[in-house]
Structures are given as structure tokens and as C-alpha cells.
Known about the structure:
Blueprint: H1 2-32, E1 43-46, E2 52-53, E3 59-61, E4 67-69, H2 71-101, H3 112-125
Antiparallel strand pairs: 1-4, 2-3
Helix pairs in contact: 1-2
Amino acid sequence: MDMAIAFVMGGAFGKIVTAFVDGMVMPLVGLLTAGKDFTKLVWELKPGAKEIMDETGKVTTAAVEPVAIKYGAFITVAIDFIIVAFVMFMIVKGINKMKKSQPEPAPAGPTNEEKLLMEIRDALKK
């Protein structure tokens, strides 16, 4: 059950981070880089073509999408990942620190049976 809750919370946290990066971080980064929108940055390998129609309006040649590497979207997702990884690292580090700060329980004293057996042992040694 704990694992299911962790997955749901992780998914929700991922959406929050994505909204934060898309709405707040990337516009600031774009402002620092002459107003470029990082999600639209592409490296076009092969240009596309528009659809061609004849006089009747019938499409004779379908449109062809350009072949491009969308490195701007990759940069945005990489920033998302770095933020999520950093937060998860800090959470795990905090949990580990809390575990270490708890004092270890003192070892339990011998039970009544163990005390009786020790007395028998000591009596036999004499």
C-alpha cells in the first residue's frame, strides 16, 4: 500500500514540477537567452513540405512534417528531472538523518527464565 501511495504522490509531484518548469523557470531562462522559447527549439534535418491541392481543392500531395531533433523539449524535460531528482535526494537524506538521530533502544535485560538458568549454572559451578 505504501508503494502505491508513493507512485501516486510521485506522479502528482512530477506534474507540479512540470508546471513549475514550464510556467516559471523556462520563461526566465528564455528571458536570459534573448526571449527564446526552449520548447520550440529544433534542429531541422530535413525540411517539410506543405500539401498541394489542384484547382478543385482536392489534395494531390499530402503535407510532409519536417524531420527535426527537438532539443529544446529535451532541455526542458532534463530540467524537470534534475529538480525531481534533487527533491527526492533531499527527502531520502532527511529520512536517513532522522533514522540515525533516533537513539537505539537499550538491550533488554535477561528474562526470568534466563535469570533462573544463570542461577542454576552458577550453583552447578560451585
